[in-house]
Amino acid sequence: MYGARAARVRRFSLLLLDEEEEYVQDWVVTAAWPVDRVAGNWQRAPLVGGRVRLCTRSLFFEPDDVRIPIVRIPLAAVKSLTSGPPVAAVAAQSGANITSQSPSSASPSSPVPSSPLFHGAVQRSSTAATSSASSNGPSMLLEAREVVLMRANMEEVPYTFLRAPTPATAAGGSVGSGSSSSGSSGKDHSSEPPEYRWAFGPCYSPLQPLLTQAAVLLEINRRPREQRSAAL
């Protein structure tokens, strides 16, 4: 029952957007969560179902499970954004045991949009079938220097800011206070990759619309402030 309720509740609000930021579009996706680097995924499930919500200055990932925090990735902090392998392959590359967090967010076995009949059948699919179905289509692969975690368990608490360790912080330890951090306390960051790596695979639509719009907004957010403000 809790799982059904978790899938219905939506925590995202336009109040989470920055000032002058606008909402663009959303997609149902399966995400490869970097469980070894980003906390909050309480089951440490490498695949998590939810929605990607693309905005003019950031990309949000809202997991179906309300116990897992919403992820905000500022586009200004994104180092790379490309078409990548299936989300299951990305999770496997991280050494994770591939299991699916949400059967309701399975991807069809083909990267093309599913039929309405299959869409309804997804709700009754098993975890094993979900893992298999979500492993085939290409994903949007991005690497970001900053991740913001918010509204886990529907709680209005201070956001958690995760920033990838720079060579200086990797050598001397994380610097910061409050809700900001460079990772787990006491952890050696010297061997970590410099960015947080995420993959998002659309479940019921082709990858290209998401990838194209995200790439355009990423390019705009890399411009000087005056040009960026004019374009957005």
From TrEMBL:
InterPro entries: FAN-like_PH (IPR057496)
Biased composition (Basic and acidic residues): 186-195
Stretch list, region Disordered: 98-137, 166-197
Domain of life: Eukaryota
Domain FAN-like N-terminal PH residue range list: 5-164
Segments of skewed composition (Low complexity): 100-109, 125-135
Name of the protein in its database record: FAN-like N-terminal PH domain-containing protein
The organism of origin for this protein: Volvox reticuliferus
